Amino acid sequence: xxxxxGFDTVPAAASGKAExxxxxxxxxxxxxxKDLLRLSRIxxxxxxxxxxxxxxxxxxxxxxxxxxxxxTTWLTDFDWRKHESRINSFxxxxxxxxxxxxxxxxxxxxxxxxxxxxxxxxxxFMHGWPGCHLxxxxxxxxxxxxxxxxxxxxxxxxxxxxxxxxxxxxxxxxDFACADAARVLNKLMVELGFGAxxxxxxxxxxxxxxxxLSSTYDECKAYHVNLLRAGPEVDQSNTEGxxxxxxxxxxxxxxxxxxxxxxxxxHSTRPATIGLVLSSNPLALLAWIGEKYLEWxxxxxxxxxxxxxxxxxxxxxxLPRCIWPYRDLFSARxxxxxxPKTDKPLGYSAFCDLAVLPKGWQKHFPNMKFRRxxxxxxxxxxxxxxxxxxxxxxxxxxxxxxxxx
Length: 405
Hints:
Blueprint: E1 19-20, H1 27-39, H2 64-76, H3 80-88, E2 92-97, E3 106-113, E4 121-126, H4 137-146, E5 154-159, H5 178-194, E6 198-202, H6 205-216, E7 220-225, H7 244-259, H8 262-269, H9 271-278, H10 282-296, H11 303-315, H12 318-321, H13 324-329, H14 332-337, E8 346-350, E9 368-373, H15 381-384, H16 386-401
Parallel strand pairs: 4-5, 4-6, 6-7, 7-8, 8-9
Antiparallel strand pairs: 1-2, 2-3, 3-5
C-alpha cells in the first residue's frame, strides 16, 4: 500500500521510466556543512551593511545583524532532517531524459501529484532563481488535502529545472539556454504520458520557459504565469493610456532595474566566478540568496523557510550549476528580438512583484484570457500566497482553458 494515497501512481500512458526517489543527505555532509558554517567569518560592520531602510534607495543588501542572527539560528535551531522529511512526504521521482548524446541523458527530478481522473489536465509548474521545487510544496499540500487521487482535477508536475536541485545538468560539453531547457521539459511531459497536451505554469525563469514551451511545442496548449514582462517591441517610455496604478508599477520596476540588477549582471557575465564563490561557503550562499527572499517578497518570509531553501541549494550543489539562464536572458537575442511569440491562451496572476505588466499594455497580449491582480504576495507567489496562487491556476486551467483533447 502506497504511503501517498495513490498520488504517486504514474499514468499508464507514460513511456519513460519514472523512478521513485527519496532525499537523504549523508550525515557526514550535514556535519561538514555545520563545521563550515561554524568557521565562517562575518565581515566587519560598515555603513552599507548597517543600513536597513529601503527608502530613498538606501538599501545595499542584507545587514550584518541579520546575517549574524541567521547564522546563529542556522547552527543552533535549524533541523535539516525535519525539512528533509517534509520534502519526502510528497511523491518524488527521477527520470532519464535523452538530450543530445544518448550516452549522456539528463537526470530530471520532479515532485508530482498524479490524478486517476480520466480527464485530469496535466500542469507543469516551473520555478525560477533563487527558487526550487520547494516553492510549490505548500500548493501541493493544499491539493492533497482538498482532493483525493480519484478527484484531483489535474496532474501537478513540479520539476527541478536542469541544473537546479536534484536534477542534473547542464551539460559540460556545450552551452545551454532556455530553449534547451524547454526542450528537456517538453520531453519530460511527453514521457510521462502527456503528449496529447498539457499546460505550462511559471514564475521568474519559469515564466520565460512557459512562454518558450507555448511558442515551440504543440503539446503545450496554454500557459499561466505570475511574471509577465513586455518585450522590446513595446515602447516602455510611452505612458499614454496608463493609469496611476500602472505608473506606480513602472516606477517600482524602474527602481529595481536601476538598483537591484547587480546580481543578474554578475550571473550573466561572470557565472564561473560567482558560482565557485557561492559554492565554497554556506554563509556566503545565505547572504546571496537570503537577500532576494527578503527583498522580493511582499511580506517577510520566515527565517526558517529561507534557511530551508538555502540548505537545499547547498546540499544539492545547485550553485554554480543553476545560473546558466542569465547569460541567455541578457543576451542580444532576447533584448533586441523580443520574447518568443505565441497565440495560445495566456493566464496572468499579477502579484506585488518587482515588475507588474501595466493594464494599459495588455493590448500587446491579445491571447490573454485571464488576468487577476492581487494586493498581497510578491515574487515568490506560490510560496507566499499558496491559496491565492492555487485559486488562480485552478480557474485558468479548469474554467478558462477547460478539458484538453
